[in-house]
């Protein structure tokens, strides 16, 4: 009794508050009240006319399932059931629900029954199923969601159990979140139907390749993946690309981004193996709209002077916390007029004598490169070209000459006789060579058996 009256006072107070502040739309906020399903459907419904409620917030309660049949939700547009203990939800009674937004994130849903997202809730535009226990998403689960614009399946243990045609009817979808679904691979046909997609998050999945993506995407997050290398991207409307925390990425060829002509933010920070940033000279301007390039905390040791155009035009460059090698190859950076921020980004890690200094503080003549033999990785190709190959060729030439000389001696001394003999006995293919006669010098002569031609005539 006490509980009930307390609750009703609370609800009524809230109700009055709501009606006072926002007469329309009508919101009922019952979040974090420890409500069980029965408390709501039996008790609270008697105090509030659910038919007029537009927004119902049941966040942080103890609902274990939700079924629309026990209540009248004719005007309901927004339903927040996040942070409950839901295993299932159904919309079975209202023939045509007005529900536009459904949030069931942070529950215990393992699969979405075919009666959950059926034709009755076709008006849904926002659906958040993140942080559940979904282990499969099959082709029929979302087939009625033709008006959906926002979908989050993030942080579910789906793994590879996402069917290739799950999204085939979701042509209105603009925002898709598949972050942290433990998926090692996304089928190429998965994203194909999403012609209106603008925002896609595939982060924190152990993928090694970027799947083919719709070309209209504006924001793409693929951080925290196992991507090995980046091929070319063709997304002419892309504004933001985040590849942060790529554990296996070692090298970036910026030319692969040549068709991202609208890109404003490119971020690859915290990629522990990223040690090479390359740019091949190209005719047209690369990344004409780039405003921010983030590469802090990677494994960059040096920057090639070919990157000059990018460094010069990008307003915000985050390059700090890289193991910079302050040698002759970095002279060009010192010759530039850098902003104070950028100057403090280049703190030398090697060589030892410059460790801890800013590149800018090291006088240009002290930016030296090691001599080729003990040259480091970057150097090797050149060193090999300059020193190793000529030696190799000389050796090869000497070897060939030696062989030729030996051959000439051999033929002139022994084989000539043999060959003549053979010519005489042409037609016989059973000549056996058993007589070995030592010549005057160290060469050995091999002669055919005495009268091999008799033998052959038989
Ligand atoms: C759903 O609810 C969670 C937790 O209350 C919240 O973080 C999330 O932003 C909500 N989703 C949408 C789409 O509003
Ligand atoms: C999808 O999963 C639901 C629920 O597990 C099941 O009823 C339905 O038959 C499945 N559909 C397909 C095409 O596998
Ligand atoms: C989903 O799309 C497919 C192919 O376009 C179509 O055959 C199917 O009827 C659609 N499903 C629904 C429920 O509309
Ligand atoms: C990733 O998803 C799992 C559940 O599959 C969850 O426990 C974990 O907290 C999520 N991690 C992040 C960073 O969201
Ligand atoms: C990529 O990185 C992950 C995590 O660091 C590691 O387990 C995996 O073996 C790496 N894959 C390759 C091909 O290097
Ligand atoms: C960019 O687009 C042009 C023209 O469509 C194409 O020839 C080129 O290969 C593309 N570059 C990349 C890196 O995809
Ligand atoms: C750097 O700035 C100074 C003064 O602001 C200017 O005199 C000099 O020409 C600039 N150098 C370059 C390489 O732009």
Automatic annotation (TrEMBL):
Residues 1-22 form the signal peptide. Keywords: Leucine-rich repeat, Membrane, Repeat, Signal, Transmembrane, Transmembrane helix. SUPFAM superfamilies: L domain-like. The chain crosses the membrane at residues 387-411. Gene3D superfamilies: Ribonuclease Inhibitor (3.80.10.10). Residues 322-370 form the LRRCT domain. The keyword Ribosomal protein does not apply. Pfam families: LRR_8 (PF13855). GO terms for cellular component: plasma membrane. The keyword DNA repair does not apply. InterPro entries: Cys-rich_flank_reg_C, Leu-rich_rpt, Leu-rich_rpt_typical-subtyp, LRR_dom_sf, LRR_TM_domain-containing. PANTHER family: ANTIGEN BSP, PUTATIVE-RELATED, CHAOPTIN-RELATED. This is Leucine-rich repeat neuronal protein 1-like. It comes from Ceratosolen solmsi marchali.
